[in-house]
Amino acid sequence: MLLHLRLLATGALLAGATVGHAAGQSASYTFFGSACSGGGPPFSVVGTPRLGGSFTLVTQTSVRRTRYETNDDVFILTGASTPGLDLRGLNLPGISACGFLLASTELILVAPATTLDPQPYSIVFPIPNVASLLGGTFHQQVLLLSRAISFPPHSLLASRGGRGVIGR
Description:
The protein is mostly beta strands. The chain has 1 helix and 14 strands.
């Protein structure tokens, strides 16, 4: 989390992003693309990215069960671009993937794990009150890697994408 705060505070996260300095820039967060056809991990947002404020991304926790059951890892991606990479084309050994990579990977966070079923998980993204961030655009996505420990194939599921514009 400290790394994330430093990235936002220095603007490094937005280094390759579209940045404008329009005084009246309004904050927005929109969703684009689609999740895997069978349903990707949950992904919603509360609030909008405003200078000096914050917004909250809501997904689910990772899960750690016994070594004979499925374990899930939830990855929250935040980046400056939308690669649009078809995850099926990666041909990862032992992994069945679906969906598209809709956020680049300048920042990857892993949701904390529970030992029960997945629980709702929220993470607050603070936006520093730094004028040079006004109009900055970033992209986010949630990936779920589900691993059946005792036998493959594992699965990699993608959510829809999210696009935030930092405003007032």
